Structures are given as structure tokens and as C-alpha cells.
């Protein structure tokens, strides 16, 4: 029995793993030829891939870029052309239309600048790695390029000045290190304003760029928030925070519904600044999809969060309203809601009301996305341990502070995959607006194929549209994975 | 039942009990649905007392201390904490909660915030302390629980014992007058139980009013000035630790002590 006794006299050192486990050969063995069955599967998959690519690549790399019609393509490839190779002439001829629809050519710089500014506005929201100064540099670059594009003496001078300023700030940002800059700020150097300011005013700039008209309308819309803010600031200490909030919202609504129009027309008659108005029926293509998608994505998340909280509320009526809304919207197909937006809504509104069709669609798509978002966020809330609520309560945080600081950051982090899936779904669902006659890329593709030059072109158009959608959706997917990595706090 | 012997004997010189009442509970009853969890609880806690609450599981001891900061609502009777009665008035509840610290069995640190942010969150948002000052206070208490070097890590990177000490520091940052401990060592390995208990002993030595639900009888003997034994939702016996352990009166207490000691 003395065999049972054992005392280790020294601890074993760490050793490197065997060579077959590491390096290129190790990787191939572990991932591709790990046993007979897997080796056969690997070879079959390679054959399958070869089969697909050998058919697809010649089709894609066809020298038809300059063809002017389907018949020209057929001439290049003989009688059965059009099946053996793609006819890319249609994309060369119509890509501008696929991007902008029938947006007037002279005004196309506006959606382009709007799109560029969208990224400038999004960067501080999406990333925290870019410095304050680089963000302002980006803004100056976009505006400067817009000036150059517009041309004319004024445009070129303004563009050069803006680009020069961008270069100056950018050069300084590159040549001073982070530590030096921190020291400068500590010793009282002036900081540039927070780029979130631009993100906050972008929602007022973008519609003005796209639809044009008087600049005083978006200014008036923005003033509504100022009105609400001051109403809250002055009334909350007197009547309590909840009553103050309700009055503030009402004050802002009154401003928007009854006073903004008057304000805008008075200001316009005093200081006329404006862009040429572009009507909604001229919107189309990816510009339309992106407009609807971005608005629906940006608005559905906050509305969804509020609905999810309402659904968990102890207040019976709030809860019933939220559950009713969510279940109704989720129980109805989006197309039905879009038909309501395009036709039925006119019956309910007073005669003569001109309620923009794109605005109606935006509201419907946003509400639709918000209902789904609410359920995704509720899933995140349900996944949080009860202890988190208790710890927040025990520290004396009230409901809203606990939600904002403790619960929502964690619940939203858990829900990132679901939230981004919903975003991607909403963005792709924007093609459904073609059914109510809006000219999104799919709607335009039908119009293009009705042209006798391109009658019979199918795969090239759909392939191009699919590719564009893929670029956007895949970027969102990769961003969500980046965000999940960035927010990981469990292991160093 | 694990029983950790503390190496150092607690210095009882500063553990003074004043005659100022910190918590008063009168005729308190609580039900979960139809189940009567707490029955006719009467308890007066004086400033500076260290009370250990023991008893079998399901006896209502956790529920009792969770009523004191209203994580649970009582249905009958009165609970008065530092002169403020707990009612459905949320202002009173928030006032009591900001003066009563609580440490949980599963730590309940906020995993998305660093250790330092965990400690500064409530002072900044509830007490409106300026950030810089809150950070100084937090570092002071993190040094006290002997983990200042972990301040910028996240809770998930720390051991259980370290997390529980952070949880204690987080509560202390609100400068509470009373600390509640809800089985603070039950989720820990023996090696880590000791470091947490030592932190708690130090806190007691500074005169903090403490109510601890715990199975660590060594801690009770060393630190407590009163041990309360609960069974079936009632206070069955309470006494000074020496009397309680050496000369229990109630049959249920005797049975419990014979099983755990």
C-alpha cells in the first residue's frame, strides 16, 4: 500500500505544444484534413467551389462595359450571348439612375454631401477611437469638396479655404502626440467643440439638403426642442419633473404644429435663404433606400427601448398600451402598413392635407422596426440578473438613473446581435416601398427593363442591386462584431 | 459547515455601542403571497452595534435585512431607519437607501464598469459629488480593502474575494451609517472567505453599525455584540455571543448549534 504515497518535489515547467498543433501545417491538419471523413468533405467542397466559380467568373468578367443595348452584347457573344456572359452596359448607362432615381441632375450634389456628412455625424456615435480634431477635419474636408464640386468662383474659394483649414488642423493633429495635446489642454489650451454637436444638428441638415426649400423650416423644427427644453427647465422645479416633462412635450408639439410654419415664412421673407425644393416623387434609387433605412434605424432604437421598458412597467395602462402596440404591429405584414400609409391614411386625414408620401412611409417603417426592436431589447433586459437591479436600488439610484447607467448599457450590449439583425432586416425591407409605387432600386429596375434597349436584362441589374445591399448589410454586421469586441469586459 | 478561524483577534476597544437608535422595527409582518415569511418582528438596533443573524435556510433572515432598505416590502408594522420611516413614499426609500449600504451574496458588481467606476457611480449620480472628489474617495476605500491596484480593471477580471471587497468599498463610498451584509461569504472559496471577513472585522473595529446574515460563527464570536437566531420567520433567541454559543436556551437553537459547531 505504500504505492499510494507520493510527494512532488518540484513543479513541472511549461512546454511548447507539439509541432503538429501549430503553424500552417498544423492549421491545415486541424481544420481541413482532420480524419478521413473530413478530408473527403474538404475535397468535395473544393470541387464544388471550382464548379461554381468556373461558371460564374467568366460570366462576371465579360467585356461588355461599353455596350449600349442588349443587342450589342449579343453581337459580342454571338447568338446565345446574354446567357454566357453578363451585359454590364446597362449598369454603366443607368447607375446614376439606380443611385438617385429622378433627382434633378443639377441638385445631385445635395444627396452626395448629405451622405458624406452622414458619416461625419456617425463617427463620434459609432467609434470612440477617432480624436476630436480628426472628426472636425473630416467635416471640413466634406464641406470643402462640396464647394469645389459646386464650382463657381465662390464655391472654389470656399472649398479651398475649407480644405486648407482641414489640412492645417489635420497637420497639427498628426504632429502633436496624444500626450502633448493632453498637456496643452491641461495648461489651458482651447479644445475644439465636441463633435457630437454636429451629430445632433445633422438630423435637421439632412432633410433640408434632400428636400430643399427654406432653411427656416429645419431651424424652426430645431427650435421646437429648444422650446421644450426651456419649458422643462422653468416648469420642472415648480410643478414636478413628470408634469414638467409632459408640459414641455406639449409645448414643443404646439410649436411644431401651429407656430413653425408661420415662423419659417416670416423669417424667409426677411432673410431668404433656401435651396430649390425637390419633390418626393423625384426621389428614388439607393438614395431613397438609404434615407428610409437610416431614419428607421436611428428612430426605431430609442422608440424600441421605451416600448420595452413600458412593457415591463408596473403601470397597468402603460403596459397594456405597449403590449397592444407591439403585438399589433408585429402581427401585421409591413406591406399592409405601407398600403395604409399610401392610400388609407388619406381617407382619415382632413381633405386638402398634403402629407408627404415619403414621410408617411418613414413613420410606418419606423414603427414597424420599433416593435421588433422592443422585443429584442426585452430579451436583453430579461437576460440581466436580478442582482443588478437590486444593487442599483441599494445604492439609492432612482428608476431612470438605474435604467440609464446600469440596466440599459448591459441589456443593449447583450442585444447587439439581435438589434443589428433587426437593422439589417429593416434596411432590406425598404425595397417593399416599390409596391406602393416609390422608385426604390427594385422599382427602378422594372422601369429600366421596360426600355427596349435593355428588355431582357435581369441578372445584371439584380446582381448590382444585391451587391450594393450586401455592402451595406455586411458593413453593419462587421460593425456589430467590432462593437461586441470593444465592449467585452470579462477577460483582459 | 465551513468555519474559518480568524488569525487576528478583533480589537473591541473602539466598538462602542451608543444609545442612539439606528434602526427600529415594530410589529413587522411580511407575506410572499399567502406564505407568512416574517412574523411579528420587533428589533431595535443601536448605533455602533454589530449584529449577526443566523438560522436555517428559509428562516427569513435575508428577507429581514432586505426589508431594512426596502428591497422587499413589508405589509404590517413599522420600520424606522435613522428617523425615516419606510413607507411607499419613494423619497423616504431613496433617502434610506443612500444611508444604508448593502453587500450581496453574489457581489452584484456592475460588469460593464471598471472597479473605480463601480465605486464612483452612486456618489456622482446620487450624492452629486464632483467626479474628481468621488474618485479620491473611491481610491481611499479601495486602499482600505487592499485592492487599489485593480481600480482600472473590470469586475470579470477579479477573483471572487476581490470582487466582494470591491462591493464593500462601493457601499462605503456612499458614506453609509449602517451596513447590511447578506451572506457575504457564502459564494466564496475558503481561501477567499478569510480576506473578506478580515475586511469586515476592520470595518467593525471602526465602529460601523453592521447587520450580517452569515454562517461564519467564528466571525460572530469575534466581532458581534449580539447574535440573533431566527427560525420559521420569527426571532427565536437573541443574546450576547458568549451566552448564545455557550448557553443556548431554546431547543431549536440548541439543535442548530449542535449541527454547525
Q: What features would you highlight for this structure?
A:
heterodimer, A: 492 residues, mainly alpha, 4 domains, two-stranded antiparallel ribbon, 19 helices, globular, B: 261 residues, alpha/beta, six-stranded mixed sheet, four-stranded antiparallel sheet, 9 helices, 24% strand
Structure description:
- The complex is a heterodimer of chains A (492) and B (261).
- Chain A contains 19 helices and two strands.
- Chain A has helices at 23-31, 36-60, 70-77, 89-100, 109-126, 132-150, 152-175, 178-186, 196-211, 216-239, 241-270, 285-311, 316-330, 334-348, 357-383, 386-394, 399-429, 441-450, 459-486, and strands at 213-214, 274-275.
- In chain A, helix 12 (285-311) runs antiparallel to helix 17 (399-429).
- The two termini of chain A are 47 Å apart.
- With 261 residues, chain B is an alpha/beta fold.
- Chain B has helices at 61-68, 90-99, 115-125, 131-144, 160-172, 190-205, 217-223, 241-246, 251-260, and strands spanning 21-32, 35-46, 50-54, 76-81, 84-85, 100-103, 178-182, 209-213, 226-231, 234-239.
- In chain B, helix 3 runs parallel beside helix 5 (160-172).
- In chain B, 36% of the residues lie in helices and 24% in strands.
- At the A-B interface, helix 16 and helix 17 of A face helix 2, strand 6 and helix 3 of B.
Amino acid at each position: 500500500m505504500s504505492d499510494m504515497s507520493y510527494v512532488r518535489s518540484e513543479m513541472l515547467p511549461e512546454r511548447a505544444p507539439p509541432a503538429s498543433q501549430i503553424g500552417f501545417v498544423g492549421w491545415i491538419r486541424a481544420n481541413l484534413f482532420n480524419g478521413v471523413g473530413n478530408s473527403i468533405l474538404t475535397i468535395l467542397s473544393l470541387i464544388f467551389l471550382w464548379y461554381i466559380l468556373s461558371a460564374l467568373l467568366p460570366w462576371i468578367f465579360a467585356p461588355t462595359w461599353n455596350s449600349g443595348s442588349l443587342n450589342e452584347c449579343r453581337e459580342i457573344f454571338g447568338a446565345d450571348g446574354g446567357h454566357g456572359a453578363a451585359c454590364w452596359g446597362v449598369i454603366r448607362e443607368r447607375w446614376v439612375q439606380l443611385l438617385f432615381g429622378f433627382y434633378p441632375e443639377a441638385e445631385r450634389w445635395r444627396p452626395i454631401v448629405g451622405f458624406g456628412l452622414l458619416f461625419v455625424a456617425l463617427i463620434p456615435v459609432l467609434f470612440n477611437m477617432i480624436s476630436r480634431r480628426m472628426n472636425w477635419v473630416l467635416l471640413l474636408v466634406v464641406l470643402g469638396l462640396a464647394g469645389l464640386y459646386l464650382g463657381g468662383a465662390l464655391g472654389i474659394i470656399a472649398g479651398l479655404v475649407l480644405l486648407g483649414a482641414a489640412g492645417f488642423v489635420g497637420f497639427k493633429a498628426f504632429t502633436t502626440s496624444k500626450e502633448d495635446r493632453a498637456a496643452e489642454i491641461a495648461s489651458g489650451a482651447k479644445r475644439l467643440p465636441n463633435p457630437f454637436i454636429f451629430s445632433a444638428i445633422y438630423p435637421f441638415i439632412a432633410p433640408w439638403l434632400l428636400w430643399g426649400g427654406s432653411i427656416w423650416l429645419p431651424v424652426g423644427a430645431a427650435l421646437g426642442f429648444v422650446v421644450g427644453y426651456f419649458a422643462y427647465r422653468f416648469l420642472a422645479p415648480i410643478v414636478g419633473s413628470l408634469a414638467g416633462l409632459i408640459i414641455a412635450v406639449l409645448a414643443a408639439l404646439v410649436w411644431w404644429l401651429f407656430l413653425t410654419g408661420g415662423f419659417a415664412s416670416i423669417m424667409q421673407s426677411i432673410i431668404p435663404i433656401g435651396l430649390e425644393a425637390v419633390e418626393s416623387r423625384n426621389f428614388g434609387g439607393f438614395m431613397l433606400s438609404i434615407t428610409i433605412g437610416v431614419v428607421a434605424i436611428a428612430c426605431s432604437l430609442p422608440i424600441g427601448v421605451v416600448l420595452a421598458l413600458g412593457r415591463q412597467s408596473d403601470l397597468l395602462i402603460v403596459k397594456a398600451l405597449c403590449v397592444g402596440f407591439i403585438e399589433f404591429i408585429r402581427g401585421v405584414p409591413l406591406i399592409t402598413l405601407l398600403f395604409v400609409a399610401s392610400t388609407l391614411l388619406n381617407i382619415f386625414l382632413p381633405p386638402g392635407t398634403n402629407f408627404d408620401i415619403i414621410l408617411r412611409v418613414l413613420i410606418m417603417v419606423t414603427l414597424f422596426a420599433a416593435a421588433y426592436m422592443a422585443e429584442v431589447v426585452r430579451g436583453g433586459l430579461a437576460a440581466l440578473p436580478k442582482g443588478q437591479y437590486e444593487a442599483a436600488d441599494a445604492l439609492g439610484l432612482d428608476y431612470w438613473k438605474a435604467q440609464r447607467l446600469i440596466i440599459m448599457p448591459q441589456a443593449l450590449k447583450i442585444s447587439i446581435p439581435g438589434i443589428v439583425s433587426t437593422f439589417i432586416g429593416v434596411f432590406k425591407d425598404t425595397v417593399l416601398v416599390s409596391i406602393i409605387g416609390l422608385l426604390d432600386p427594385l422599382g427602378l429596375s422594372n422601369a429600366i427593363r421596360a426600355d427596349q434597349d435593355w428588355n431582357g436584362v435581369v441578372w445584371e441589374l439584380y446582381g448590382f442591386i444585391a451587391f450594393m445591399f450586401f455592402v451595406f448589410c455586411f458593413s453593419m454586421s462587421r460593425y456589430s462584431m467590432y462593437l461586441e469586441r470593444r465592449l467585452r469586459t470579462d477577460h483582459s | 459547515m465551513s468555519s474559518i478561524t480568524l488569525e487576528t483577534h478583533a480589537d473591541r476597544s473602539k466598538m462602542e455601542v451608543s444609545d442612539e437608535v439606528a434602526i427600529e422595527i415594530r410589529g413587522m409582518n411580511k407575506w410572499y403571497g399567502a406564505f407568512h415569511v416574517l412574523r411579528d418582528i420587533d428589533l431595535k438596533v443601536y448605533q455602533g452595534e454589530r449584529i449577526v443573524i443566523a438560522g436555517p435556510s428559509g428562516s427569513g433572515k435575508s428577507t429581514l435585512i432586505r426589508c431594512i432598505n426596502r428591497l422587499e416590502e413589508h405589509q404590517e408594522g413599522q420600520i424606522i431607519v435613522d428617523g425615516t420611516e419606510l413607507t411607499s413614499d419613494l423619497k423616504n426609500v431613496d433617502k434610506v437607501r443612500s444611508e444604508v449600504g448593502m453587500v450581496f451574496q453574489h457581489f452584484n458588481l456592475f460588469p460593464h464598469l471598471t472597479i473605480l467606476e463601480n465605486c464612483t457611480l452612486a456618489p456622482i449620480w446620487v450624492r452629486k459629488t464632483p467626479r474628481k472628489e468621488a474618485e479620491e474617495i473611491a481610491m481611499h476605500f479601495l486602499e482600505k480593502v487592499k485592492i487599489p491596484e485593480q481600480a482600472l480593471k473590470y469586475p470579470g477580471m477579479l477573483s471572487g474575494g476581490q470582487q466582494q471587497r470591491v462591493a464593500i468599498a462601493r457601499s462605503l463610498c456612499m458614506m453609509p451609517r449602517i451596513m447590511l451584509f447578506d451572506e457575504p461569504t457564502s459564494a466564496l472559496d475558503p481561501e477567499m472567505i478569510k480576506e473578506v471577513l478580515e475586511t469586515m472585522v476592520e470595518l467593525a473595529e471602526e465602529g460601523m453599525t453592521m447587520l450580517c446574515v452569515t454562517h461564519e460563527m467564528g466571525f460572530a464570536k469575534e466581532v458581534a455584540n449580539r447574535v440573533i437566531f431566527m427560525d420559521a420567520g420569527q426571532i427565536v433567541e437573541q443574546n450576547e455571543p458568549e451566552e448564545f454559543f455557550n448557553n443556548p436556551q431554546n431547543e431549536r437553537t440548541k439543535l442548530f448549534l449542535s449541527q454547525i459547531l
